[in-house]
Amino acid sequence: MSVARRRPTLGMVLYTAGAGCLGFYFTFAAVQGDFGVFRRVQATAEKETLTRERDVLRLEVARMENLTHRMSDDYLDLDLLDERARDVLGLIRSDEIVIH
Prior knowledge:
Helices cover 69% and strands 0% of the residues. The chain is an all-alpha fold. It starts with 9 loop residues before the first helix and ends in an 11-residue tail after the last helix.
């Protein structure tokens, strides 16, 4: 008695090929899709960059707020006023010598 080998039917081949294609698609989407691993790494790096930029801008805003406060009517820093007048208006005192 010989055991006859049966060839896989066409339905079984199509089912296996379809399952393989779906598995490949979902694996590809999980790695490179809009919400995949690569996008998450990119978003994390972008978040860190933007956080550093935000911190630099916060320091700049604090510096500008300090300068604005020092030039306000409530608190006037005469040294800062003198420095800004010299820089912006090009003013000098009569006892100073300017060398270009």
